[in-house]
Design a protein that fits this description.
152 residues; mainly alpha; Globin-like; 0% strand; globular; binds protoporphyrin IX containing FE
Length: 152
């Protein structure tokens, strides 16, 4: 018997067909992205370079982790679940490109541990692109504040 509209499960994606195709192609899912985010931030939090930057700004980790799962669900699977604005949150951070490289090293390591090869490639490509644009935004903010940009 065909399902009626009322008995269908709630739509979890703004673009269900695309999301389905991406999940099949990459092996990524809510469960995998949750493991990726939790695994990644457990490394970040104890990292001597990045840990203190996060610890000074995030006291309650649960909402941050939930937000980051929504972010990765939006970025990797186009579900539209994340509605925030990352640029202003990074513009004032005391970071150079070296910090982003460290962030990316830990992200690549975790993605390769948790995802399929296709899934890891998919999320790493997106992380690299976003890291470059967040770095540029943080440099622009510094320049506007009258400081010399750091090339390190
Ligand atoms: C040097 C590297 C990075 C550092 C130190 C850093 C640090 C932070 C901190 C401290 C926050 C919390 C800000 C707040 O709530 O006030 C945050 C939020 C966030 N970060 Fe990063 N981050 C880095 C790189 C990245 C990269 C590469 C991405 C994406 C690929 C990313 C995505 C996000 C997102 C989506 C949020 C949530 C923004 C919101 O509140 O909606 N971050 N980050």
């Amino acid at each position: 018997m065909p399902q009626t509209q009322a008995s269908l499960p709630p739509i979890r994606s703004a673009r269900p067909a695309m999301t389905q195709e991406m999940m099949e192609r990459t092996g990524l899912s809510d469960a995998v992205l949750t493991d990726l985010v939790h695994g990644f931030y457990s490394k970040v939090r104890v990292d001597p370079v990045l840990g203190p930057i996060f610890a000074a700004r995030i006291t309650d980790w649960e909402p941050h982790l939930e937000k980051m799962v929504d972010f990765w669900s939006s970025v990797a699977l186009m579900t539209g679940r994340y509605h925030g604005a990352p640029v202003p949150k990074h513009a004032g951070l005391p970071v150079t490109w070296g910090h982003f490289e460290r962030w990316l090293d830990l992200f690549r390591e975790t993605a390769n541990e948790i995802c399929t090869v296709e899934g890891a490639t998919h999320v790493i490509e997106r992380a690299e692109r976003i890291a470059r644009s967040l770095h540029m935004a943080s440099q622009d903010a510094r320049r506007q504040a009258g400081n010399v940009p750091s090339l390190r």
